[in-house]
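Hey,
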Amino acid sequence: MEKCIWCNKKTDNLMTFTETMKNILTGTTQETFNCCSDECIDKTRAFCHYANRNLSKFLIGFAISVALVPVALFVTAFMEQMNSPYPVGFAISVIGGLLMLFLFILYPFATPQTVMLIGIKKSIIAVRVMIFIIFAVILFSVINEM
């Protein structure tokens, strides 16, 4: 018995369709999806189109937010040597963290393995919940350090 890619429901009556997907390593690929209903097909197609349109925006934003970490460390070290009272490195870290939070809320893209395990619908929820948990832990640790 196979599972619907959208809702993760197990059934024997799955409908199959093919969608063109962007892939950062191989360009575009034809992916085959199994869905349990026309509604799930429509929602899966809509998500695929959304992912195709926004993949490059997500990757650029993710690269920028990750690149802000070493910049923040460098600025923090430089500002400490200058005996500056201004927490510029901290501000850069917060900007990077907020950018990451914004990215994962706006573009809740999970790994293909996660999608296969729990379906697209639940993976969107899981990504958004995890980014809020991560942000809350970071925020809690920052507040405790002040």
